[in-house]
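EI: anyone free to look at a 413-residue chain?
SC: sure, send it
EI:
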Amino acid sequence: MNNRMKDLDFEQTVVFDTVKDFEFTRKAAQRFRQVVELDSFEEKDTEVIFHYLYKEMELVSFGDHLKRYIYERAGLEEPFAQVPQEVYREIALESFKETCTPKSMNPTSTKLPALINNWLTQASVKRDTVFLLGFGLRMSAGDVSDFLTRVLREQDFDFSNPEEVIYWYCYTHHYLYAKAQEYKEKYKELVPAAIQNETAACGGGLMIDTEEKLMEYLAGLKAGWVDPRSEKSQAFQEFMRLLEQAKQVIADLYQKDEDEKGRHRRWTAENITPSDLEKVICNGIPINKMGNLKKMSASILAKHFSQKRFSRQRITNILNHKFPVERFDLLTLEFFIISQKMQDEDPYKRYHHFIEEGQKLLEKCGMSDIYIVNPYECFLLMCMLTDCPLAVFSEIWEKSYEGTDESSMESLS
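SC: here you go
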């Protein structure tokens, strides 16, 4: 495979949305190529991928990024490593009070100091937390964008989501959280109308430079926007389509199982439950005494994958419209389906098919392209280039809960 890999321009698999992201993303694409071209990749694919994720991938926790941001913004003079966490907490706490920013966008009984302490120590946080911090710490739109793309490793502001458009506009004009809430209330009263400002619809949000243009754009969104938790949302519909395919794949696997054959049972997609999906897709993740997947915190790749696990609880919550469908859900299902349906195909061909289908899927759901800087998406891409993608996927998850043998890791570097 290595000879053909040299003809593959990995940098063309990534769309660079902004100039500032180009260098950052290009380096990740180049390192990706170097790893999959290693002589040991074909024979020791699991070890090579695990070594890259655990030892080489540049990864800093959300909490450390937040501390660094506060350190620079506050102009602290003592060495960064010597600043106690209490100092960062007090600076953030004072800023939240000055800006009259609430402690959460959702009801919570947790006190603000405790929440800030959590943010300063967590490996990752939810997207809404970044938006809240944007107001609480008086961030610019560029600062929030960096936290979304470089720290969370997710897509930038989603200009198809009215709330994110409002947040972006407020950061750009240095408005407080109260102003954002005011715009959200105005949005509820807007009469849906066709979008006139087409440049903004393509992500060129800089064209929304007045409140009048903001309302005009939001009215256009309202004409076609659907809550991502709703069964009417494109993401939910694509999730259901992929889920049905995944169920059929698992039913076929069960039907071929020797133990099942002896029971003379006929497996169909309708027989497959969220538990079956978890059992097959999360096969490498150990189970606790209660029959649930072990906590993510027990994995040494917790910082890399955050809460990216396709558990039966997550599937059920999506089906019950409690959780919105995320890109992680869609790409995981797409990965599983293609890994099984094309398991006998050439890895190079399978990889390209996954990228092609994945990009179309994300675009259809209004999500940004596959982001090679995102550790989980990079992980899926690397697995696709192995002879047995799902097996490697499971083995790496399993290995992450067992720890690592340092001597075997050193032999790969």
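EI: The two ends are 20 Å apart (CA to CA).
SC: 👍
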